[in-house]
Amino acid sequence: MTLKIIWSEFAETQLGEIYEYYKKKAGPGIAKKLLKGIINEPTKLIKTPHIGQEEELLKQRKIHY
């Protein structure tokens, strides 16, 4: 089974807001580094899919999240 990380539109908007906030407060370099860390974090789930928390509201769906 191949896993795929899907970012919601809301999550993408939040990433943009996080970047803009840290760009103003700490500079563009820090903002990019922070954003890269946030974006790369979910890839751990692809390598080890059972480390994540199981979402109760999605358990009844045919596709497993």
Give an overview of the whole structure.
This protein is mostly helical. The protein has a domain at 9-51. Helix content is 55%, strand content 0%. The protein has helices at 9-26, 28-40, 43-47. Helix 1 (9-26) runs antiparallel to helix 2. The relative contact order is 0.12.
What secondary-structure arrangement, pairings included, does this model have?
Elements: H1 9-26, H2 28-40, H3 43-47
Helix pairs in contact: 1-2
Can you give keywords for this protein?
3 helices, 65 residues, 55% helix, mainly alpha, single chain
Put the structure in a nutshell:
The model has no long low-confidence stretch (mean pLDDT 89).
| Oligomerization state | single chain
Mean pLDDT: 89
Low-confidence stretches: none
Number of strands: 0
The tally of helices reads 3
- Structural class call reads mainly alpha
Order of helices and strands: HHH
Helix percentage range: 55-70%
Give the overall shape.
elongated
In whole angstroms, the N-to-C terminal distance is 12 Å
- Proportion of residues in extended strands: under 5%
Largest sheet composition: none
Radius of gyration: 15 Å
